[in-house]
Design goal:
about 110 residues, about 25% strand
C-alpha cells in the first residue's frame, strides 16, 4: 500500500512559491520523481492561502520513503526551506482506492 504525504510549506509573502519554483528549476524535484519508489511529487497553491504551497508526495512503501529521507536530496530541501524561512506541516495518508463506498462513487467521474 502506498503512502501519501501532504506537506504544507508556509512562509511570508511569496516565499513558499519561490521555494517550489527553485525545487523545480534546480531539477531537485525531478531527481525526487526519478527516485526508486516515488509515485508522485507535485506542488499546488491553495486559492485561499497565498503564503502556502502544498506538496503531494507519494511513495510505494515505507522503505521507499525512508530511503528518500536518508538521501542527500533531503539536505538540499532543508537548505531551501531555511533559505525561504518556511515552516512545514505534514499529513500522512494510505490511500484505499479499492474500498470507495457506493455513495462516494456517485460523485466521482472517470
Amino acid at each position: 500500500m502506498s503512502i501519501v504525504m501532504n506537506l504544507y510549506y508556509t512562509g511570508e509573502k511569496d516565499n513558499a512559491i519561490k521555494f517550489a519554483l527553485e525545487m523545480e528549476s534546480s531539477k531537485t524535484a525531478d531527481l525526487i520523481r526519478k527516485s526508486k519508489g516515488n509515485l508522485r511529487y507535485e506542488y499546488f497553491v491553495p486559492v485561499n492561502d497565498e503564503n502556502t504551497v502544498l506538496l503531494i508526495d507519494e511513495w510505494q512503501s515505507q522503505d521507499a520513503l525512508d530511503r528518500h529521507h536518508a538521501s542527500p536530496v533531503m539536505e538540499t530541501i532543508l537548505k531551501l526551506r531555511k533559505k525561504y524561512n518556511l515552516t512545514v506541516r505534514a499529513q500522512r495518508y494510505t490511500p484505499d482506492n479499492e474500498n470507495i463506498s457506493a455513495a462516494d462513487k456517485e460523485y466521482i467521474e472517470k
